[in-house]
What we know:
The complex is a heterodimer of chains A (174) and B (227). The mean pLDDT of chain A is 84. In chain A, strands 2-1-3-5-6 form a 5-stranded parallel beta sheet, with helices on both faces. Chain A is an alpha/beta fold and 174 residues long. Chain A is built from 9 helices and 6 strands, in the order H-H-E-H-E-H-E-H-E-H-E-H-E-H-H. In chain A, strand 1, helix 3 (37-47) and strand 2 (53-59) form a beta-alpha-beta unit. Helix content of chain A is 52%, strand content 18%. With 227 residues, chain B is α/β, with parallel strands linked by helices. Chain B has 2 domains: 3-132, Response regulator (Rossmann fold, 3-Layer(aba) Sandwich); 161-226, Winged helix-like DNA-binding domain superfamily/Winged helix DNA-binding domain (Arc Repressor Mutant, subunit A). Chain B has a 6-stranded parallel beta sheet with strand order 2-1-3-4-5-6, sandwiched between helices. The longest helix of chain B has 18 residues, at 136-153. Chain B is rod-shaped, with a radius of gyration of 28 Å. Mean pLDDT of chain B is 87; it is low at 1-9 and 155-159. Chain A binds chain B through residues 63, 66-67, 85-88, 90, 93-94, 120-123, 125, 143, 147-151, 153-154, 156-157, 159-160, 162-163, 166, and chain B through 100-101, 123, 127-131, 133-134, 136-137, 139-140, 142-144, 146-148, 150, 159-161, 163-164, 221-222, 225-226.
Amino acid sequence: MKRSGRSTKQRRERGGLDWVKKRQIPIITVLIADPDKKSRAACVRALHGVRGVRVVEEAATGLEAVSATAKLKPRVVLLDLELSSEFGASLISVVRRKSARTRVILLVGRASEERILEALSHGAVGCVTKKDTERFLPEALEAVSSGEAWMSRKLIPKIMDRLADFTARAEARE
Amino acid sequence: MSDRARVASASVVLIASPIAGVRAQWSGGLQEKFPVYEAAERSSLDKGMANLKPAILLLDLALPGLGGVEGVPAVQRISPLTSIILMTSTPNDREGLAALKVGARGYCSHGMDPNLLRKAVMVVVKGEIWVARNVFAPLLEELTSLTERRHKEFPPNLDTRLDRLTPREREIAQLIGGGASNKEIAGRLNITEATVKAHLTAIFRKLGLSDRLGLALFVTEYNRVTR
C-alpha cells in the first residue's frame, strides 16, 4: 500500500519546474489509517491536489498504522476512531511514542462523544467527521500542523467537565 | 418561578464595562435580539446580577474592582445560572484557558465584530462555550497531560485493549501468545480446562476475536509493537 512512488510520478507528469518549486515548501506528510477502503479513498480525494500535502501511506489495521508511523514519521496521521480503540484509545499514545512530531486527527463515523473524548485525552489534536472530510480535511491538516487543534466547539463543555473531574479527584485525595 | 425558568424565558443580557463606548458597541449588535442592561462599575454589576439574574453577562476583564479572571467566581456566585462571557482587550491563549477553568462560558476580544458577538451570545445561550480557536490546543494539552499523569500514578496493567481483560484473563492471553495449550494453562494456573475455556470465551468476546490463533497473533504483535 505504498503510495509515494505513484505521487512522485504524478508530480513529474505535471511538469518539471513546478515540481521543483513545490519541493521547496514544507510538505505535510499524511498517513491514512482506516480499515474501510471507501473512507481512505474519500480522504485521498479530499486531499488530492491540495498544495503542500502528500499522502505517504495507507494503513488498514492498528498495527500497520503503528509500524508505518515508526518508519515514515508522518506529520499527520488520520486515524479512524474505531481503529484507535483497537488498543484502547492508547493506540494514539503508541503512535505518539513512535514519532513525537506526528499529530493525530480522528476520523469519526458515527458520533460517539465518549470515545472521541477518550481519544482526545490520549493526545489526538483534531477530529473530523467522515461526512465532512471533503470540506474540512485540508483546513484541519493546516491547523494541526501549525500547532493548533481542530474540533467542534461543542466538545469543549465535555472537555471542561473532564478537567473538573480531574481537579475534584485530586482534591478528594488531599 | 424557578431561577432557571426565569433565566430561560427572559434571556436578558447584562453588559459590564467601565467604558461607555465599549458598552454601546456591544449592545449595538445585541439589542434587537435581547433585552440589554448596562453596568459601568462593580457595585452596579453586583446589583444587576442579583436583581436581573441575566442569562448572559458580558464582563469586561478591565472592570475596576473585579480583580481579573480570579474575580469571576465571586460574580458568578451572585447568580449561579448566568453564563458569563469574559471580554478582554488583549486576548491570549493561557488567559482563555484560565477563563474557562473559573467557569466562564466564553472568552472574547473587546473589538469583536457585533454580528459575531451576537452569534457568540446565541451559542452560549444554547449551553455551548465560545472561545477563540487558538484556545483549543492548550485546552487539549491540559487534558492530555492530566490523563497521562493519572496513568502514571495509577498505571493500567497493560496500556491497551488488553485493559478490558481481568488480570486472570490477561495472564491467560499472554500464555496463549506464548503458544501454550489449554491443558498446559490449566496445569500452570492450577485451574480446570473447563475454566480455561470459559476464560477464553470471555477474552474472545472482549477483544472481538474469533479463535486462539487470532489471540496469539494479537498478543505477540501487541507485545512487539508496544515494547
